[in-house]
Amino acid sequence: MEFAYSKRHAELRQRATELVKQLSSYEDECEWNGSLSPESRQSVRAIALDSGLASMNAPVELGGAGLSWLEQVVVEEELGKLTNGLWAAVWRPTAALLLASTPEQRERYLVPEIRGARFGGRAVTEPTAGSDPRQIATTAVRTGGGYRISGEKWFVTLGDIADYFVLLAVVQPDNAPTMFLVDKNLPGVECVEVPRYTHQFAFAHPHFRFTDVEVGADAVLGTVGGGLQLSQATFFEERVLVAAHAVGAAERALTLASDWARQRVQGGDRIIRHQLIQAMLADSAIELALNRTFVHQVAWDIDRGHDLKTLNAKVAMAKVSATESAGRIADRAVQIFGGRGYIRDNPVERVYRDVRVDRIWMGTSEVQRLVIANEIDKRGISGLVHFAEQGGS
Ligand SMILES: Cc1cc2nc3c(=O)[nH]c(=O)nc-3n(C[C@H](O)[C@H](O)[C@H](O)COP(=O)(O)OP(=O)(O)OC[C@H]3O[C@@H](n4cnc5c(N)ncnc54)[C@H](O)[C@@H]3O)c2cc1C
Fold first, then answer.
1. Ligand 1 in contact with 135 (CB < 6 A)?
2. 320: β partners
3. Where do the domains of the chain lie, and which CATH numbers do they carry?
């Protein structure tokens, strides 16, 4: 066993740190204006492209960075230190596309996306289908040459800059859940609302309505009826990144809070000498170190191709643990700053708001606990709490 960064990991981490430094200069603009100006968007896009870390999940032969899961986690942790959703400027193609696209779909959507010329918003959630995507009501009715899609999709992250959607609909008459690639400029696609959220995000999460949107048969991503599996595969990947991301956010909050505690004097001493503050810092350091280790271990397991069902539950464990811990660590950081922690200028206040959604999107904490408990029911705890043996399963 080795618990150290290789040269390659250290170099990637350094590059990610540099990238975070550049992108963080846009945090204030985003906080005060609720988003970025078109000029700033151009700039952050250029910064992300220059870093070579955009599309880090995509194969090198298609123009991506081709990083392993462990390498992606190393980078994503650093990106997690950014507030205001600026990490989202470092885009990656939708995993479902990577998995299931035809050569033509790859040329039309994926390759331009890797170069930063296109972007696909993931459109799964609906007013009546959130945690349970089997309730999807968006329909795709067969026409002569393809499908006619109607329905409503909520919370489409980066839907403001997306120029197409990876959309889950049920093909009629069999109600077969199926993923479609739907261009945003097609007649019948309309943005119906851009809600405001707890966080101030560099991009938006709008709601869209699709009314009799005509697409060709070649818009089906994967197979008719295979949409839920594709959607799950996408969630699996995104959960790993959310977990890594939460570790980075927690580290930023704890770093700021501990630096403050070491200098702030109250009650005749630096506040870090007060035991109640010490307990908060110690608890946070324990949680942060444990979550960092576990998230890396899960990524390492994925790279080695371990059993997918066990991995699915381990990824759920990582997401629940890292995101809930980030919430506690950010909360303690605000407390350690006192009134200064409640001012929006202070990044810990932003981290506090930003990490809240990590317990909701990509599968809520409750649903992740169900995944973990189902795995325990089916195969016991061993695969979840032990290391795998060398060589994979
Ligand atoms: C900022 C933001 C961005 C998002 N981006 C996207 C996106 O890009 N694309 C997309 O498709 N979606 C996106 N989502 C949607 C997100 O994935 C859903 O909000 C999430 O899956 C939960 O669904 P819901 O909101 O409908 O809550 P519900 O499913 O209605 O859940 C409500 C509550 O009930 C609990 N619950 C539900 N089922 C069970 C159960 N079986 N057992 C126990 N408890 C249960 C949940 O955990 C939750 O606490 C985004 C959401 C937000 C807030």
1. no
2. none
3. 7-93 (1.10.540.10), 120-221 (2.40.110.10), 228-385 (1.20.140.10)
